[in-house]
Design a protein that fits this description.
The structure is a homodimer of 292-residue chains. Chain A is of the alpha/beta class and 292 residues long. The first copy, chain A, has helices at 5-17, 20-26, 31-45, 61-88, 101-105, 107-118, 131-140, 185-190, 201-212, 226-234, 247-250, 281-291; strands spanning 50-53, 56-59, 93-99, 122-128, 145-149, 157-171, 193-196, 219-223, 239-243, 256-259, 266-274. Chain A folds into three domains: 5-88, Winged helix-like DNA-binding domain superfamily/Winged helix DNA-binding domain (Arc Repressor Mutant, subunit A), CATH 1.10.10; 93-162 and 268-291, D-Maltodextrin-Binding Protein, domain 2 (3-Layer(aba) Sandwich), CATH 3.40.190.10; 166-265, D-Maltodextrin-Binding Protein, domain 2 (3-Layer(aba) Sandwich). The longest helix of chain A is centred in the N-terminal third of the chain and has 28 residues, at 61-88. Chain A is rod-shaped. The first copy, chain A, binds a DNA duplex (30 and 30 nucleotides) through residues 6, 19-21, 29-33, 35-37, 39, 52-57. Chains A, B: It holds the Pfam family LysR_substrate.
Chain lengths: 292, 292
DNA sequence: AGTAGCTCATAATTTTTCCCTATGACTGCG
DNA sequence: CGCAGTCATAGGGAAAAATTATGAGCTACT
C-alpha cells in the first residue's frame, strides 16, 4: 500500500485549511473521502499527521513538516506539467533546425518572422550546414528538422518538397546573351564561366548537367563564395551559374539573369525529418509555416 | 482526468528501459496496463510521449524531457517520505525539551545517554528555564516536552509524575545535628541557615513549609548558586536546605545530608506535554526513557 | 441546563477505476 | 515464409474510492 498524489494533496490542503471538511470542499470531494485519504496516508507512512479532537483537527509536527515538503513537490510538479502543456499548445518550445546556407540566407528569415507572428513563444535554433551535413544532423537527432536537397529515398529520412531552386545564368550588364529569354547548355559551355568551387554540391550539379548533355565544363574562374562570383560577373569576367534564390543576386541590381534550358539544373529543396519520429509541437508549427 | 503518480512512474520507467514491456515487468504490472497508463498520461497532458512502431517505442523529445523532470520529482518525493518513515521508526528526529536547571544538571544527562543508546538518531534540543517558563514553553508549543514542577490541574497541560525531589539539610563536617537520622523544622529554624535567593522557587517552598509550621525563616546567608551555598556550609557558616538530587552535593564529599521531617519540603517533578497533542515519535522515545 | 451547530468518524452502497487475460497486428530476422 | 518480439485492443472482473446517511463528541448560545 503506497501513497498517491491524491493523498498528498489532501494532506497539504488539510494542513492549509486546518479542517478536513474545508479541505474536502476545496478538493471537490466529500468529507469522509478526505478523512479516509488522510488516514490511509498515515497508515502508509506510519506517521500520525493530525491530532483529532471533537472540535476539529490539528496537524502534528510531522504533519506540518510533511505538508511543507509535499507542497513544494506539488508546486514543482505543477510547473513541469504546465510547461509541457504550454509546449503542446505551441505557446513555447524549442526546435533545432539544420539549414542549407543558401536557404538560411533567403527563405528562412521570412519564415521565421511568420512563425514568430503565429507562435511568439517558440524559439528556433538554426544551424547552417552543407547538404550532406544537414541530412546527417537530422538522422542523428541533433536537428529535429532539416532543410536540404532531395537526396532520393533514404530509409531513415522523410522528405517533404518545399520548392525548387533553379540555377540561372548571371550575366554582366549589357551582355549579348541578355537578348535571349533563356540560354542553352551548349551556349553556356562555350562562354567563360564563373563557377563555385569543385567541392560544392552546386558545382557537382552543374558538372552533372553538362556531362549529361555531352559537354565538359571549363570554368574561367572558381569562387568559394557567391558574393565573389557575383563580383566577378559584374566585372565582366564571365557568366555565373547560381541558384535563382540567392540573395546575392537580388542585391546586385545591374546584373541580369536568364533561365537555362535544362531540367537538370534544378535543386529540389525539401524539408527533412526522421522517419517514424513524431515532431514536437514547436517543430510541427515550424514545419507548417515552412510548407504553407 | 488528471495525472497520477502511477502514470508518472510508468513514464520514467518506460523512458529508462526504452520498452513498455520491460517497464511493465519492472513495475509489476502487465504490459497492457502500462500501455494504458502512458496513453492516459498523454491524453491528460496533451503531449505525445512516445513514437510507436511495430518494433518498439521511442520516447519523443517531450517524453525524454518530462521523464527527466519527473524522475527528479519522484526522487525528492522518495527522500521526503523516507525521512518521515525514518522519524516514525525513531531512527531520527528532533525533540525540543524545556527543563528546570536542577533537573538539567542532574537527572537529564543520564537520561539523554540512555536515549542515545536506544535511539542514536534522535537529537534533543534542551532549553533550561525556571518552572513558570517551562510550562509556558510547552503551552506555546515551543517545547514538545517539559520537565517542571507539578502545578496542579492546568487545562492545556498534561502532567506525568517523574520523581520527587525532597529538600534536605546540608550539614558542615562534624556538625552535632549529624547524630540524628532526621531533622525537625523547629530545630532547623533555630540554626543559622544558608538559603537560596528570595526570588527562587526553592526559597518560596522553604518559606511556605516554615510558615505552615508557624515558624519564620531568618537566613544567615543567601546564595544565588547552589555551589555557593555548599561552599558556605563547608566553611561551617550554617546549614543549607537544598534538593537531594543536586549534583553539587554529590561532589562535596565531606558534607552530610539529613532528611527533614515534613511532607511539605518536597517537589513533585513532572513531565509536561500539551493536552490533546500527540507526541512526535522522537518525543515519545524521550518520554519513555524519562519515565522508565 | 438543554439544544443547536460544528467537527470528524463510521458504515453500507454504488460508482469508478484499474488491471489482467486473451488476442490481434505489425515488423524484422533467420 | 514463418517465428519471435513488440505494442494495441477488447472484454470481464476485481479492487479502490467515492457518495450518502448517520453517529458521536464538543462548544456555545439561549
Amino acid at each position: 500500500m503506497s501513497y498517491s498524489l491524491r493523498q498528498i494533496r489532501a494532506l497539504t490542503m488539510a494542513v492549509e485549511t486546518g479542517s478536513f471538511g474545508r479541505a474536502a470542499a476545496r478538493l471537490h470531494v466529500s468529507q469522509p473521502a478526505l478523512t479516509l485519504q488522510i488516514r490511509t496516508l498515515e497508515e502508509s507512512l506510519g506517521v500520525t499527521l493530525f491530532d483529532r479532537s471533537a472540535r476539529g483537527v490539528r496537524p502534528t509536527l510531522a504533519g506540518q513538516a510533511l505538508a511543507l515538503s509535499f507542497q513544494r513537490i506539488l508546486d514543482e510538479l505543477e510547473t513541469v506539467v504546465a510547461g509541457a502543456r504550454e509546449q503542446a499548445q505551441r505557446r513555447s518550445g524549442v526546435v533545432h533546425l539544420a539549414v542549407l546556407p543558401s536557404v538560411a540566407a533567403n527563405l528562412l528569415p521570412g519564415a521565421l518572422a511568420r512563425l514568430r507572428a503565429a507562435h511568439p513563444g517558440i524559439r528556433v535554433m538554426v544551424r547552417d550546414a552543407v547538404a550532406r551535413r544537414v541530412a546527417a544532423l537530422v538522422k542523428a537527432g541533433e536537428a529535429e528538422l532539416g532543410i536540404g536537397h532531395a537526396a532520393g529515398p533514404e530509409p531513415e529520412l522523410e522528405e517533404t518538397p518545399l520548392f525548387e531552386d533553379s540555377l540561372v545564368a548571371v550575366l554582366p550588364p549589357g551582355h549579348t546573351f541578355a537578348a535571349a529569354a533563356s540560354l542553352t547548355l551548349p551556349a553556356l559551355a562555350a562562354a567563360p564561366l564563373v563557377l563555385t568551387d569543385p567541392e560544392s554540391s552546386l558545382r557537382a550539379l552543374v558538372e552533372q548537367a553538362f556531362a549529361a548533355a555531352g559537354l565538359s565544363v571549363r570554368p574561367a574562374y572558381e569562387a568559394t563564395y557567391m558574393s565573389t562570383a557575383v563580383a566577378l560577373v559584374r566585372a565582366g569576367l564571365g557568366i555565373a551559374v547560381l541558384p535563382a534564390t540567392a540573395v546575392e543576386l537580388r542585391v546586385a541590381p545591374l546584373l541580369e539573369t536568364r533561365p537555362i534550358d535544362t531540367p537538370l539544373l534544378r535543386r529540389r529543396i525539401v524539408l527533412l525529418r526522421r522517419r517514424g519520429a513524431s515532431l514536437s509541437p514547436a517543430a510541427e508549427a515550424l514545419a507548417e509555416v515552412l510548407a504553407g
